Structure formats: C-alpha cells, structure tokens
C-alpha cells in the first residue's frame, strides 16, 4: 500500500526520471494499466497460431494484458529503456554478409541483460521507497506475462513499428525494456505518434518473410523463433533462408531508417564476449558441451543448450560456400549423441557436397 500521505507531485516524478538516468537508463515513462487495444491484437495473433510452440504466450489467460490481474493493486507502470548497441551498423552488416562468420543477434553478445536491468530497476524502486516510504511494486524484465512493448508505447517511449519492435524517434530500436508495476497513482505520459509512414523496409528485408503484414509477425517463420524458441527440427524449406544467423536475427533493425539515430552503449556488460561478434562458424561448431557451458555462462545464449547451438550452426555451415574444412567439421559431428544434431549435420553435408560438385 502507498503511504497515506503520498501525492505524486511534478517534482517527485521528475526525481524518478533523474534517478533512472543516474542508474544508466536512457529514458523513463509512465503509463496507466489499460491495454485493451493490445489485448485484442494479442488474442487475434494467438488465435491464428502465430506463436508456434511458445505456449507460454497463451498460458496465463488475460494476465499479460491486464496488469492488475498479474499484480493486484497495480495502478501505474513505470517503463524504462536501456540502450545496448555494441557496434556500428557497418560492422554488423559486414559480419552478416560474410557466410563464414557466425551472426549472433547483437542483444546476446554480452551478459544476459535480465539481471542487469532487474538490479537497476530494483535500485530505482529502493530510491522511491527512500523518498516516500514503503509502497507496493513488482519489477519485471521479460520475466513474466507482461506486454512490455505495448506498455512502453503507452508510456511514450516510442511506437511499435511494422516489425513489432518499439522504435524511438531519437534512439532507434536497439534497447532493452523493463517495468515496475506499482500501486502508486502516477501521472501517465502521453504516447507518441507512429512515424513508420509508408516505409516497408523491414517487411521486405526479412529473410524468411515472417512479417506477413505490417505489425503482424508469424513467429513460426521468424529466424529468432527458429534458432531460439523452437526445440525440434528447423523446417527444411526455411533452412537455406537462415544464412549464417545462428542465434536470433537483426535484419529488420539493421534496415530501419530510424536506427541511424541509435548510439553505442556504454554498458560494459553489453560488450561482446568470447569473440562472438566475429567468430567463424567452424570455430563455434568446435565447442564441446563443456566449452559451450563455460563460454555462455551468464549469457542469454545458454538457454538453448549445446544441441540446439550445434543444430543452428550446422544449418549455417550448410548455407556457406563449399569448403573442405567445413565438410570435415560437419563430418566430425555425424556421430553426435543427439539425433537432432545428426539430422541437421546430414542436411548440411548434403548441401555442401552438392555445391562442391556444381
């Protein structure tokens, strides 16, 4: 319960914003809890089965779109963003266009962002409590059924683009989001207008054409879903389209004209680890399970496990230019314990052999 004397003055809200900046966030906004429009969009998306095997998207009923059902007493939501871009666009494009180099979505190059943002948001909540006394709240960083992009949009942090990511007019889309659900009655910020206009660059660039219509992404075709969320075999017809993308995909962000305003992150934890921004496919394919676990400790990548890591890289090796070293690396995994790995290795070897003979 909020303190009985609490009144959300302009000075208090200004202090919250200043504290957020001091803690490393680039922007903070406040919204109410009415997500009616987003709820309708979510329900239609689920009804069409576009969430694929992400059953958790439908597992919590309407708690995802009704904040007070998830956290009783919630009156306002504090939403904050933190930039994570680790390198310039030209460098990313260079890696993506080199079929021998593994491309990892740039959000996953460093340490897992969940703990960092959660810690900073907790510190922000502590500062608020120190100012007004104990109050009710709960911190979220992609850790519960929360419509974080819809909330951030209502809080004025940007607009949801045609690729379904949040875009900020002055910062692009290379940032993480986190929320504090609170029982404090805070003045809501004004949402900003969409500035996508007639642009359809993200729809056209998507390697698997997963953005089936503006603001509508079929996850079952999305490279991020296929390389991270999907547990089984990657559909054969989609494998050639993955190119050298082994964990996630950044194409729609790389092409977005608003990302010319994005700035590099100063957070040390978001900087690349273990040369993941430039490692070759063969190099990463050679990691043993022990090496994989050691080198992905504290990383978002670890969640897919070693077998799916090898599955993804096998596909990328199959898409690379014919090379004897690649065929040798693939042959070395033909007796892997995982049937999933073996299947994708056989497919990749067939691709490599066919290309070598042409």
Q: What would you note in describing this structure?
A:
This protein has 358 residues and is of the alpha+beta class. It has a domain at 10-89 and 113-182: NADH Oxidase. It has helices at 10-22, 36-47, 67-70, 89-96, 113-132, 148-154, 201-205, 223-229, 251-255, 281-285, 289-295, 305-319, 324-331, 339-357; strands spanning 27-31, 76-83, 103-104, 137-140, 159-160, 166-167, 175-182, 211-213, 216-217, 245-247. The chain has a 4-stranded antiparallel beta sheet with strand order 1-2-7-4, sandwiched between helices. The mean pLDDT is 96. Catalyzes the conversion of epoxyqueuosine (oQ) to queuosine (Q), which is a hypermodified base found in the wobble positions of tRNA(Asp), tRNA(Asn), tRNA(His) and tRNA(Tyr). One of its GO terms (biological process) is tRNA queuosine(34) biosynthetic process.
Strand order of the largest sheet: 1-2-7-4
- Given as residue ranges, the uncertain stretches (5+ residues, pLDDT < 50) are none
Number of strands: 10
CATH structural fold name of the domain at 10-89 and 113-182: NADH Oxidase
Count of DSSP H/I helices: 14
Summarize model confidence as the mean pLDDT.
96
The CATH class name of the domain at 10-89 and 113-182 reads: Alpha Beta
CATH architecture of the domain at 10-89 and 113-182: 3-Layer(aba) Sandwich
Keywords:
four-stranded antiparallel β-sheet; iron; NADH Oxidase; 358 residues; 14 helices; alpha+beta
């Amino acid at each position: 319960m909020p303190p009985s004397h609490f009144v959300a003055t302009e000075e208090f809200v200004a202090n919250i914003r200043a504290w957020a900046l001091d803690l490393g966030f680039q922007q903070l906004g406040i919204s109410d809890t009415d997500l009616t429009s987003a709820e309708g969009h979510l329900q239609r998306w689920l009804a069409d089965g576009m969430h694929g095997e992400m059953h958790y998207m439908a597992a919590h009923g309407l708690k995802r779109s009704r904040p007070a059902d998830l956290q009783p007493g919630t009156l306002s939501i504090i939403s904050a963003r933190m930039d994570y871009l680790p390198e310039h666009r030209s460098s990313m494009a260079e890696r993506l266009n080199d079929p021998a180099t593994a491309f990892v979505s740039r959000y996953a190059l460093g340490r897992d962002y969940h703990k960092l943002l959660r810690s900073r948001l907790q510190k922000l909540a502590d500062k608020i409590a120190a100012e007004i006394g104990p109050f009710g709240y709960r911190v979220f960083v992609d850790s519960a059924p929360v419509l974080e992009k819809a909330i951030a949009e209502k809080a004025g942090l940007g607009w949801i683009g045609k690729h379904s990511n949040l875009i900020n007019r002055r910062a692009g889309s290379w940032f993480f989001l986190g929320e504090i659900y609170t029982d404090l009655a805070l003045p809501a910020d004004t949402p900003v207008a969409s500035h996508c206009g007639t642009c359809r660059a993200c729809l056209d660039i998507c390697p698997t054409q997963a953005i089936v219509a503006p603001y509508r992404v079929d996850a079952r075709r999305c490279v991020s879903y296929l390389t991270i969320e999907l547990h089984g075999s990657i559909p054969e017809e989609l494998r050639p389209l993955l190119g050298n993308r082994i964990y996630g995909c950044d194409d729609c962000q790389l092409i977005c004209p608003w990302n010319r305003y994005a700035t590099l992150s100063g957070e040390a934890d978001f900087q690349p680890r273990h040369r993941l921004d430039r490692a070759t496919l063969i190099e990463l394919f050679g990691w043993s399970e022990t090496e994989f676990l050691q080198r992905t400790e504290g990383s978002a990548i670890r969640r897919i496990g070693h077998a799916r890591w090898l599955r993804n890289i096998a596909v990328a090796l199959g898409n690379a230019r014919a090379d004897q070293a690649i065929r040798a690396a693939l042959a070395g995994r033909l007796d892997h314990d995982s049937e999933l790995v073996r299947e994708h290795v056989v497919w990749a070897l067939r691709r490599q052999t066919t290309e070598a003979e042409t």
